[in-house]
Amino acid sequence: MPRFDGAFRARLYDLLRWRRDVRRFKRDPLPDGTIDRLLGLACLAPSVGLSEPWRFVLVEDPARRAAIRANFEACNAEALSMQSPDRAALYARLKLQGMDEAPVQIAVYADRETVQGYGLGRMTMPETIDYSVVTAVHTFWLAARAEGIGVGWVSIIDPAGVTAALDVPEDWIFIGYLCVGYPQAEDDTPTLQRAGWEHRHATDDVILRR
């Protein structure tokens, strides 16, 4: 049984604080085997009923990448049109994806039809399959950050369009599109906070006691 001492905990807290949603990447490729290793660590995440429902699609084909990039552009234009007049200019200045630079792009899915786990723990809450995949994404994110690698989660995107572009089973549930690579710069403050879009709130604001 490993011992996690104070020094380790301090470094872990640093890792949590410095995990950022990266949008600006260097184009440098990652060393061979890096993504396979990080995805292996992602699979250590907890999953309901030990179902391991995560499915990772490495998007390497230029045509498929272009289709997903166009998908983002269409969705982003619609999102911009829905902003209030006082927020539209700020929204337009935000960099909300890193697809043009990130050397690695991964579409993440949940397989709700997996028989692994025999349905344990998800009969009343089938969405726990999706939650399990999110924990895998976060595990991947932290493991990548520990190696100086950045991750950006693109959410301004049409799931059906991504699924069609990647030719994966239609019953898989799209969870997110990840851009992965070395960040151009590092900061412990969220990008959207530095841009003036939003700020973190005190922990007490989200804790209720009954």
**CATH superfamily assignment?**
NADH Oxidase
Nearest-integer average pLDDT: 96
Please give the largest β-sheet. Answer: 4 strands, antiparallel
CATH class: Alpha Beta
Q: Percentage of helical residues? A: 25-40%
The string of secondary-structure elements, in order, is: HHEHHEHEHEH
Q: Which CATH architecture would you pick?
A: 3-Layer(aba) Sandwich
The proportion of strand residues reads 5-15%
If you compute it from the alpha carbons, what radius of gyration comes out, rounded to the nearest whole angstrom? 18 Å
* Distinct helical segment count: 7
CATH topology, what is it called?
A: NADH Oxidase
Overall number of domains? 1
- Give the uncertain stretches in residue-range form: none
Query: How many distinct beta strands?
Result: 4
Fold blueprint:
Layout: H1 6-18, H2 34-42, E1 54-58, H3 62-81, H4 85-93, E2 104-110, H5 128-146, E3 150-154, H6 159-166, E4 173-181, H7 191-194
Antiparallel strand pairs: 1-2, 2-4, 3-4
What would you note in describing this structure?
- With 210 residues, the chain is of the alpha+beta class.
- The chain has a single domain, classed as NADH Oxidase (3-Layer(aba) Sandwich), CATH 3.40.109.10.
- It contains 7 helices and 4 strands, in the order ααβααβαβαβα.
- Strands 1-2-4-3 form a 4-stranded antiparallel sheet, sandwiched between helices.
- It is globular and about 50 Å long.
- It starts with 5 loop residues before the first helix and ends in a 16-residue tail after the last helix.
